[in-house]
Model the fold of this input.
Amino acid sequence: MLKTHHGIELTTDNAKVVDLYEKALNHVQRYEGGAGAKIKEMLTEQPDFWAGHLLFGSVLATATEARFMPKIRKIVEQVSANREKLNERERGHLAALDAFGQGNWRDAAFHWGQVLTDHPHDTLALHVAHQVDFMTGDDYNLMNRAARVLPEWNEDIPNYANLLGMYAFGLEENNFFSKAEDFGRLCCALDPRDAWGHHAVGHVLEMEARFDEGISWYEGRQPDWADDSELSVHNWWHLALYYVEREDFAGALSLFDQQVSVEEPDYVLRLMDATALLWRLHLRGIDCGDRWTSLGERWASKVAVEGGFYAFNDFHAMLALMMAERWQDFNQLSDQISAQAKQPTTLGAMAREVSMPLLKAVEAYGRNKCQEAVSILDRVKPLVYRFGGSEAQRDAVDQLHIGAALKGGLSGAALALTHERTLKKEESPLAWRFAGEAYKLMGDAEAANKADKQAALLLA
Ligand SMILES: [Fe+2]
Done:
């Protein structure tokens, strides 16, 4: 039994393996590339290093792709067969990964949380549980899981900055923007390579519509978050959102083409960011050329394996397939979501409660049945957080709601929804543009003009 520099006991006597485990985990926590190579080297050095297999399974889990689930279950099977060789903490990880592999993601987060109660410096448990909180829309734990261990840490403990980044993001998703920004900036000051900390500050600037500051934040620190980072595409996406808010649509499209719509490696997370950006541009009436066609093709190639797996991914697949008018693929996706909805798991509940209604709403929008789309969204929107993602990402659903009301000429609904937005984000030109459109539908030219003037003032 050897200990990591966090004091975590690993069931191995091979110091090189421990060193590789720590290096891999350090890459994972900072979202740097290179973790996979270190994991491979570690498991080649000691093929029966079961804690290393659990690390590998946890990294695969955070990718949120169905194609990795058989490997996760295989790891669980192999490690379970050697259960007596694990220490108690490692058995906690095994229980968590087992639950995850069965689609019980909330149970998985519970088990990782149990590990943290006894081992507050277990950085793997912290990292993966934080990600699962994010994936299940558990904002309470997204913030408080980090809070429960933070006083047990200090600046001298490696990866302290990464923990601050997690806490910052949790605070931001719970609307404690000022405190989130302080923790996020401190994280980046202590570890300029922490992509999650950059991301947390980026979210604060997004939620407060501080788009010029957002552009400066990302552009001024680009090498730190963009180079060799697993989170780079997502952070480019955040930068593009400020361009959309700034009404620099050519700039946003350029970022789409050069940084966001990355085809290799074709991770679902990246496809989602590409879809989410194009969706916002579509709703602003921007001609996106044949980009929907190629995005639709990319999603269609994934439906057979990924369709119906995770509701948050599926929502973006629906948007792209609808926009590309790939209705046959859309129907296949619908069948797979229906099958998932029958499962008594976290993933099944998400499919049942969120994906099924959203599927009908997106189809109704695509087939110009906008009244139907708006009615469905009226009912499902309070539940949408259950499929995870951030507030900024779930804004794609809010914008679908507004977009459907505007497209269908439903002036009352459009105005009511834009009132929500202008009160929540009064510094957002986009909010005022939507309000202007709604007033135009109402036939209130004076109010429409006033809303557009407010947008122009914020852009000046
Ligand atoms: Fe984000």
Remarks:
- The CA atoms of residues 219 and 342 lie 45 Å apart.
